Automatic annotation (TrEMBL):
<dbReference type="InterPro" id="IPR050767">
    <property type="entry name" value="Sel1_AlgK"/>
</dbReference>
<dbReference type="InterPro" id="IPR032675">
    <property type="entry name" value="LRR_dom_sf"/>
</dbReference>
<keyword id="KW-0812">Transmembrane</keyword>
<keyword id="KW-1133">Transmembrane helix</keyword>
<feature type="transmembrane region" description="Helical">
    <location>
        <begin position="18"/>
        <end position="39"/>
    </location>
</feature>
<dbReference type="Pfam" id="PF08238">
    <property type="entry name" value="Sel1"/>
</dbReference>
<protein>
    <recommendedName>
        <fullName>TPR repeat protein</fullName>
    </recommendedName>
</protein>
<dbReference type="InterPro" id="IPR006597">
    <property type="entry name" value="Sel1-like"/>
</dbReference>
<dbReference type="Pfam" id="PF13306">
    <property type="entry name" value="LRR_5"/>
</dbReference>
<dbReference type="InterPro" id="IPR011990">
    <property type="entry name" value="TPR-like_helical_dom_sf"/>
</dbReference>
<dbReference type="InterPro" id="IPR026906">
    <property type="entry name" value="LRR_5"/>
</dbReference>
<keyword id="KW-0472">Membrane</keyword>
Length: 553
C-alpha cells in the first residue's frame, strides 16, 4: 500500500491524520534547511526562529525569510517559496517585499511573468517613497510594460527617485532630458543629472556624460574630458565605454594615439559580447593595426558581430569569405607564407593590398582554386618558387603592375590556365615558370617591358638571344635565328607541338627544354652552324620523336 493510501484507511483516527499533516508541512519547510552546507547552531536557531515568526504573520520576518530562499542563504534556493513569503509580506504593506515581489513578476522568477503584476507592486512600493520602486515604475511607464506608455509619468517617477539620490534614476532622468521625452529637451539639465549619477560612480552615467562632452551638448565640446569619463566607465567594465575608448586611442581623439591600447580596449568590449567591439577588433586584425594581421581572427570577430545582427560586420564577413582572405597567412612584412586549410580554398581569391611577396609553395596543390585577382596588390614584387605548383583548377590570373619576379616553376602544372599577361615591371622569370601548362594559349608580355619580349605566345629576352618559355598550348613555332639559347623547361608540357626547326646561331638547349612534348615527331638541326650543348633530359618523354632533320649534325 502506498503512503497516501494510508489516509483512506477508516481506522485512522482524526487526531492521527492531523498529526501526519502537521508532520508533512514541517518536512516541506524544514527540508531546505537540511540540504545546504552545515550551519552553526546559532544560525540554525535564527532561521528556525525566523520561520516561526513568519508563520505567525510578522511581515518583516516574512520578507527576510523570502530573501533567504531567493538567495539560497542557509536554505536551498527556491524562487517559488521566496515568492510565497514576499506575497505574504507585501499584502501587509511591507515596502521592501512589495518591491521584491514586483521584481519577481518582472523577471518571471517563482511566479508566472506578469508586467501588470510587476507594475501593480512597484506602484505600491513607490507610493511609499521606495526609491528603487519609483525608478522601476518610471521604467515601466517609459517602456509601456504593464501599463500604457506615458513619458510624462516616467519623468515624474524618475524625478521622485532621483531626488532621493538614486544614481540609476538620476541617469534615467538625464536621458529623458537629453531626448526630450515627457519633458522639454534640455541638454544642460541632462548634463546636470548625468553628472550627479556619474559622480556616484555609476558607469552608465559616466559613459553618457562622456558622450555629452564628446558631442558638446549642454557644455563645451571637450574630447579630453570625454575620454576621462569613458575611461572611468570602461574600468568598471562597461563594454560600450571600452569600445568607444578603443576608438579614441586608435584615432588619437582626446588621448595620444596608441594602437596597442586601442586593441586592448576593443578586445575588452569584444570579449564581453559587445557587437561594435567585436567588429572593431575584427577590423584591427583585418588591417594589422596594433596586432599581427590575421584574416582568420578578423573573420572570427566579424562573425560574432554579424551573429548579433550588425550589418557592417555581416557585409565585411561576406566580403572576406568571398575573397577567401581568412585562409591566408601573411607575415607582418607582407609575405604571404601559406594557407591555413587548403581544402577550404575554393573559387576566386582576391589577394589583399598588403601582400608584398608570395613565398615558395604558398598555394601548392590548391586544386579547387579557380581565379586569383592580384589587382589590389600594388606592392607585390615577388612570386616565389612553386608558389602555385599543381593548382590545376586555376583558369585566370591578373598580375599587378608592380610585379618584378616570378620564381622557378611558380605556375608549373597549372593545366587550367588559358591566358597570362605579364606586366612591364617584370625583370626576372625563373625556369619552368609556366611549365606543363598544357592549355595555356596566350602568353603575352606588355610592350613597355624592357627585359622581355613576346611573339606568337613565346617569351624571349628583349635582345631576342634567349628563348625563355612558350605557352603550353602552342602547336607550331618558328624560332628566330638571333636566338642562341633555349632556356631549360622552355617547352615543357607543350603537348601539341609536332615539329621544331632550330635557329642557325643556337648554342645551348637547356635541361628538360622539350620534356613532355608527346607529339613532337621532328627536330630540325640542319640550319645550326655552331656546336650545341644539350642539357640533360632535354627531350625526355618525347615518345613520338623519330626523326632529326637531314644534315642536322
Amino acid at each position: 500500500m502506498d503512503f497516501w493510501g494510508v489516509f483512506k484507511m477508516k481506522q485512522i483516527k482524526k487526531k492521527e491524520l492531523i498529526f501526519i499533516k502537521v508532520f508533512i508541512m514541517t518536512v516541506v519547510f524544514m527540508l531546505p534547511l537540511l540540504c545546504v552546507s552545515p550551519l552553526t547552531a546559532d544560525e540554525t536557531d535564527e532561521i528556525r526562529a525566523l520561520q516561526q515568526e513568519a508563520e505567525k504573520g510578522l511581515a518583516e520576518a516574512q520578507n527576510k525569510l523570502a530573501g533567504l530562499y531567493f538567495e539560497g542563504k542557509g536554505v536551498t534556493q527556491n524562487y517559488e517559496t521566496a515568492a510565497y513569503w514576499y506575497t505574504k509580506a507585501a499584502k501587509q504593506g511591507h515596502i521592501l517585499a512589495q518591491n521584491n515581489l514586483a521584481d519577481m513578476f518582472l523577471e518571471g522568477k517563482g511566479v508566472e511573468q506578469s508586467y501588470k503584476q510587476a507594475f501593480y507592486w512597484y506602484r505600491k512600493a513607490a507610493e511609499q517613497e521606495h526609491a528603487w520602486a519609483q525608478n522601476s515604475l518610471g521604467f515601466m511607464y517609459k517602456e509601456g510594460w504593464g501599463v500604457e506608455q506615458n513619458y510624462k509619468q516616467a519623468v515624474y517617477w524618475y524625478r521622485k527617485a532621483a531626488e532621493q539620490e538614486l544614481s540609476e534614476a538620476q541617469n534615467n532622468l538625464g536621458f529623458m532630458y537629453k531626448t526630450g521625452r515627457g519633458i522639454d529637451q534640455n541638454y544642460e539639465s541632462a548634463v546636470y543629472w548625468y553628472r550627479k549619477a556619474a559622480e556616484k560612480e555609476l558607469a552608465e552615467a559616466q559613459f553618457n556624460l562622456g558622450n555629452m562632452y564628446y558631442d558638446g551638448l549642454g557644455l563645451a565640446k571637450d574630447h579630453e574630458q570625454a575620454a576621462e569619463w569613458y575611461l572611468k566607465a570602461a574600468e568598471q567594465g562597461l563594454a560600450k565605454a571600452q569600445n568607444k575608448l578603443g576608438w579614441m586611442y586608435h584615432n588619437g581623439v582626446g588621448v595620444q594615439q596608441n594602437d596597442e591600447k586601442a586593441v586592448y580596449w576593443h578586445r575588452k568590449a569584444a570579449e564581453k559580447g559587445d557587437a561594435e567591439g567585436q567588429f572593431s577588433l575584427g577590423w584591427l586584425y583585418y588591417q594589422g593595426i596594433g596586432v599581427k594581421k590575421d584574416y582568420k581572427k578578423a573573420a572570427e570577430w566579424f562573425g560574432k558581430a554579424a551573429d548579433q545582427g550588425l550589418a557592417e560586420a555581416q557585409a565585411r564577413l561576406k566580403e572576406l569569405e568571398a575573397q577567401n582572405n581568412p585562409l591566408l597567412v601573411i607575415d607582418k612584412d607582407g609575405t604571404l607564407t601559406g594557407i591555413t586549410d587548403k581544402t577550404k580554398l575554393q573559387g576566386k581569391l582576391v589577394l589583399p593590398p598588403e601582400v608584398k611577396k608570395i613565398a615558395e609553395n604558398a598555394f601548392y596543390d590548391c586544386t579547387a582554386l579557380t581565379e586569383i585577382d592580384f589587382s589590389a596588390c600594388t606592392g607585390l614584387v615577388d612570386i616565389g618558387r612553386w608558389a602555385f605548383l599543381g593548382c590545376t583548377g586555376l583558369t585566370e590570373i591578373r598580375l599587378p603592375a608592380s610585379l618584378a619576379k616570378i620564381g622557378y616553376w611558380a605556375f608549373d602544372g597549372c593545366t587550367g590556365l588559358v591566358e597570362v599577361r605579364l606586366p612591364a615591371s617584370l625583370n626576372s622569370i625563373g625556369k619552368g615558370a609556366f611549365a606543363d601548362c598544357g592549355n595555356l594559349r596566350k602568353l603575352i608580355v606588355a610592350p613597355e617591358n624592357t627585359t622581355y619580349y613576346s611573339k606568337d605566345n613565346v617569351i624571349y629576352t628583349r635582345n631576342m638571344k634567349k628563348l625563355i618559355c612558350a605557352a603550353g598550348g602552342i602547336t607550331q613555332i618558328f624560332i628566330p635565328d638571333t636566338v642562341t639559347e633555349i632556356e631549360g623547361w622552355a617547352f615543357d608540357g607543350c603537348t601539341g607541338l609536332a615539329e621544331v626547326r632550330l635557329p642557325a646561331n643556337l648554342t645551348v638547349i637547356g635541361e628538360w627544354a622539350f620534356s613532355g612534348c608527346i607529339k613532337l615527331a621532328k627536330v630540325d638541326f640542319s640550319a645550326c652552324t655552331n656546336r650545341i650543348e644539350i642539357g640533360e633530359e632535354a627531350f625526355y618523354g618525347c615518345t613520338n620523336l623519330t626523326k632529326v632533320g637531314e644534315q642536322s649534325f
